[in-house]
Amino acid sequence: MPGILGIYPFGLGRENWRLARFVYYGLLALQHRGQEIASIITFDKELHNVTKKGFVDEAFDEKTINSIPGFIGVGFVSPTEEQTPIEVSNPLGLILVGDGKPELEEDVRESWRAFAELLAEEIDRTKNALRAALNIIEKVNGGYSFIALTENQELIAGRDVHGVKPLEVGSLGFDLGAVASESSALDVLGMEHIACVKPGEVVKFDPYSIERGRVKGADKVEPKYCSFEYVYLARPDSIINDIPIYKVRESIGVMLAKEHPVKADIVIGIPETAIPFALGYSKSSGIPVSLGFVTTGRKVRTAIKPSIFERLVGVQLKLNPIKCVIDGKDIVLIDDSVVRGTTLRNTVWNLKRKGARRVHVRIGSPSLVSSCPYGIEIPPPDELIARALDEREIAEVIGADTFSFLSIESLCKAIGLPCNRLCLSCWRRRT
Amino acid sequence: MKVMGVGGGAREHALAEAIARSTHSPKIYWVSELRNPGIYRIVKQSGGEYALARTTDAIKVAELAEKWNVDMVVIGPEEPNFHGVPDEVEKRGIPCIGAKRSLSIIEMSKAEMRRLQWRFNIPGKLLFKTYRSYEEAIEDLEKHADTLTWLQNVALKPARQAGGKGVKVVEDLQVYLRSEKKQFKKRHIRWIEQYMKKYGDIEERILIEEKVWGPEYTLQCFVDGRTVVGMPLVQDNKHAYEYDIGPETGGMGSYTGRGYLLPFITKEEYDRSLEIVKAMVDAIQRITGERYHGFIAGQMMLTEIEGPTLIEMYSRLGDPEGVNVMAMLKTDIVDIFEAIIDERLSKIKIEFAEVATVVKAMAPKGYPDFRDLAKNHPVYVDEKAIEKAGCKLYWGSVHLKEDGSMVTGGSRMIEILAFGESPQQASIKIERCLSNRPVRLLDGWELFYRSDIGSEEMIRKRTEIAERVRRLYKYREERGILGKRVDWHPKIGKIDPVKNLLDELKVIRS
Ligand SMILES: Nc1ncnc2c1ncn2[C@@H]1O[C@H](COP(=O)(O)OP(=O)(O)O)[C@@H](O)[C@H]1O
Ligand SMILES: [Mg+2]
After folding, report:
1. Domain B2-98 - what CATH class?
2. Predicted model pTM
3. Ordered alpha helix ranges (H), A218-307
């Protein structure tokens, strides 16, 4: 689930751009996709890679940004310290950033290293970066998007044939072209969001052209768009694969209300992801929606923060219930997903202490029961509460009055695609 | 009957082809700077002659017309108009289809065009300012930095037509990117100043115009001094590369709907656009006292602030837009030319085929901004294969050498046209044709073209934007505030930039 970004200048005077600041703000918009590593990679005569730990705005201060030269820019944020940009120097200098996992090695990082090396070799062999990337994508299974920048000023962006991971294209005036994990990163840069890179498609930018190509037969392959993106990962202001995230999330709320109706006084969504769900639930059920919590501190993705301790601190800092809203009320509490259940249990506890009478928990996604085959950092299967317990049992454990997940069918309906065009691996039990 | 043409690009090839279709079976004569292989063939087949010369050399061109004793001359590109070729030809008693020098100012000077539009209060205007130097422009921009005036979001242009080059559009909406944008503006204004030095014929160098957004379209017309006859709308695509990314070009491809309208422009918008062009013709004729005989075009954009809006005018057909309409034209073009010369356009019927068209240009890598790289590559074209695929070939910037070999001239090399029930269908036809690589450079240098022109996705995108803009300008219209702008400056208070502009232009409003 890392965030990737590439920005490329065209035309006379293209070398005069300094794109580090553009990359920086683009990364801020992708911050939710990874908080452990932030990288700004640029080209000016040669490749530069500045990779740092932590949040984007901690990793790069004003001085650092100003000190990074370069008129071609690539950015990367990662949720794990292990995953950093891959540098290859032989037979061709290249830096690659990727989201997802090419099926080459057991380990995600090793897979990306192998992928980058294959790409460099293939470019060297074919002398045609577009062709080379297509050849590699055709051969390498998995779910992945990548951006590679070569020492020859070629920027190559592509997606696996199923298009599991997102990649969107944008432009600025007559001057810049860009690709990014999410369209909101393009919006933040004042760019025009144009289209998605298609599954199995490669887009190559060089100083004198943009070329596109698609793996033969890729238009006949069923896409397997990651459904987790729609439920949870992407920003609600993003459009991914032509589907607006916000619309999906609101529909999920509507579906939840239909599938799991309950009598209550108010609907509350856990900030921030679950707010659109709550709005949809309220719209469909007629139960008024209220703002239930105020958050403190950074938006930390609690499900994927490394240690349990950090998670607990995270949630307490993050969610403070607003007493007068919940006191004496029957509440429908909506969250986006349940991993271990820790966060949710604390939240329900907090609500009751502040006066909630009944708490009916509704989850805007199906039960999370398997790990992600494409590298999303979900805890090991034996730590997933939904794998061990059914809905009634979960309700007991977290102290809720009722508890329900969204069905997989409703999820597909909310996204607006038939289930076979989505990757649903994490919601399905594998042994 | 002898007809002579001027100019050597794909647009002129399409003109030559239309002339060759005439039932008058004219002998065709041509003059251009490079020997266009397509035009050359048409000329030879008609029994005419082809000469190489600087097409801006009015005397030279007029002498050729006299020597060949032609019945009329038709001008393709804009520069001959700017240099008074039509004036010189007509001085010798030979009728010319082409805007005279003083008339062509509406294209040559974007500033004059705008002033004319404001003076005559013709709809579809944009706020603008001109500057003679970098310092002047920068000083003014600095003065307005961080104020709520239209100067925040601007188009920076060379004040003189510079061959479809040098326009940059800068939106300054992200405070955090302000320093980058400022640097960019400064660099570009400096560039414009330097670039304009090579044209001695204009004093204002830099034009800054309010930035607008919306779908663009071109309305090309025949004019005879009394009547303006509109042709089917065409949309050209200026960005060099796929997805509408990259530098401004003369146009990488264009399409028409079936008939007069594009899929995203209404009949009412067409009519309003035509009224604008007519009013501009009236205005320029009134100011100069000359009669406009030839082609004129409005390069339009649908905008929130004004509805159908003039971005610039052409004193000629567009390229590639001219190729679309010439291929669709059913009426004998020589009849039309004669009607223009006799000023009786209103008496004849001009018809276009009810078919969609797509044109895609192919250019050597390096075009548009690094033309030296794009020059002098040997060209191979399998004309049979193109024809077999149901497409038509128009030669552009290619020079046919004496020994029969061909090399690139550095600009758009060829244009391929296909007809279809819809632009989408025509676009697919061209894609299929080009996938077999019938056009190549023999030294291995690469060509590029845009696969997305006329595609389903492109038209969907344009339609979406058109609908968004239409909602906005219609609403303004209902409220009676179409064209109204309000700025605010902390030291001055509310500002009416329209009033300021009119004051500056010394227009007395009734
Ligand atoms: N005021 C403006 N606002 C927004 N875009 C503009 C504006 N003026 C020009 N453009 C864009 O720049 C392009 C080129 O501008 P134009 O005035 O037609 O100059 P050129 O002579 O280079 O064709 C237009 O096709 C349009 O896309
Ligand atoms: Mg133009």
Report:
1. alpha beta
2. 0.94
3. 227-228, 245-259, 275-285
